[in-house]
Amino acid sequence: MIEAPQTFVVSVECEKAASQNGYRRSLGEQEGWASYDSTTAKGTIHLAAAGDSGPWFLALDHPGVVEELECPRAKVPGPGLARYAFESLTELYSVMPRVYALALTLPEGPLEDFLEKTRNLPRTTEAERLAVQRIGQGIFRDGLLFYWKFSCPLTGITDEALLRASHIVPWKDCPDDAERLNVHNGLLLSALWDAAFDKGLVTFGDDGCPLFSPALSVPARNELRWRAPISLTEQHLKRLARHRERYFKKDPA
Fold this sequence. Notes:
The chain is of the alpha+beta class. The protein has nine helices and nine strands. Helix content is 39%, strand content 17%. Helix 3 packs antiparallel against helix 5 and helix 4 packs antiparallel against helix 5. It is globular and about 70 Å long.
């Protein structure tokens, strides 16, 4: 099924699919699978094809990406933890940005970036500590933008000026920087939803649907429009359980 060795056309198309989606370092080909990695994202990807016109195959060795990539697995032998089949290059290209975004943020991409950028920064004074915190919050926001595909999952809003990086467990209550910068401890929400979530006027159930506080006014409730539930992982759910218990306002104002 896998063409080995790759023809010139397959080799060129695999290299283009990898390089145009963040995987620019070629690691060579073995048994028809061409391997690539990235200087920014974790893990290695492997690409192959049955022929010049496909099908095309993707193999992944990053457990976090494999766990969250919403794509059927293919029963084809090859490298990595999981393999996927695509009838066309268009289908392959539609998945590659998500692979890169997940590999960039899971499990500790933002934390590693934060540690590198703040390694030599002083933290003696309050001003210095606030400067370090702002760097962390900026990295956290960037991570959420990639993870949530630059879109509020509730409303579909994509205007970055209107999107907020919402911590589920607040920054000040996180036990360490790893939790503060974990993308599973955040939602990318439009500004009004972020304000309501931050103040405990809204939270989310295990089905991803919003739960509204009795303390929320009717006009405000009417303005909090949404089009679809949020797709949540088990990692999100355990933190949202804490949000519902500790931060959600269960009584009228």
